[in-house]
Write a structure and sequence with these properties.
4 strands, four-stranded parallel beta sheet, Rossmann fold, 16% strand, globular, 38% helix
Length: 144
C-alpha cells in the first residue's frame, strides 16, 4: 500500500445514551465483547428528555456526521415521559435538517432496554453504516 494514499475518513457518530437503559445496554455489549464501530462516541445523559434540540444541532455543527438519541423503551422511561419528549425533539430536528437540505436520516431515536446489549451493538453498527452511506457532513465547523 502506498504511504501517500489517504484512508477514507470515517464518519463520526455521537450517541446520547440515557444512563438507565441505553448506556447500560452499551456497557453490556462491551461486557459481552460484542463489537460496534469505534467511531461511535457515547455521551451519558441522565435521561434522553434532557437532550435538547440545540444539543443535537450543535453536535452536527461541531463535527458529528450523525447523532443518535438512545433511551428507554417507550412506556418504560425512569422519568415518566422523558424519552417521549426526546422522540418529539428528534422528529423536529429531522424536519429542520430537511429544510436545510441535509438528509434527516443523520439523526435517529432508538429505544433500548438495559438488557439489550446485542441490540445496542446492532443499532450502533447500522447507524454508522447509514452515515457512511450518506457521507461526511460538510456542514460542520470542525471539518470545513
Amino acid at each position: 500500500m502506498d504511504a501517500d494514499r489517504k484512508q477514507p475518513e470515517e464518519p463520526k457518530v455521537l450517541a446520547f445514551c440515557c444512563m438507565y437503559c441505553a448506556y447500560a445496554a452499551a456497557d453490556m455489549a462491551g461486557s459481552m465483547r460484542l463489537t460496534y464501530p469505534p467511531n461511535v462516541e457515547i455521551i451519558l445523559v441522565p435521561c434522553t428528555g434532557r437532550v435538547e434540540i440545540h444539543h443535537i444541532l450543535e453536535a452536527l455543527e461541531n463535527g458529528a456526521d450523525g447523532v443518535c438519541v438512545a433511551g428507554c423503551e417507550e412506556g418504560s422511561c425512569h422519568f415518566s415521559v422523558g424519552n417521549l419528549k426526546a422522540k418529539k425533539r428528534v422528529a423536529y430536528v429531522k424536519t429542520l435538517l430537511e429544510e436545510l437540505g441535509i438528509d434527516p436520516d443523520r439523526v435517529e431515536m432508538f429505544h433500548i432496554s438495559a438488557s439489550q446489549g446485542p441490540l445496542f451493538a446492532k443499532v450502533a453498527s447500522e447507524m454508522t453504516e447509514n452515515i457512511r452511506r450518506l457521507g461526511i457532513l460538510k456542514w460542520n465547523k470542525q471539518r470545513g
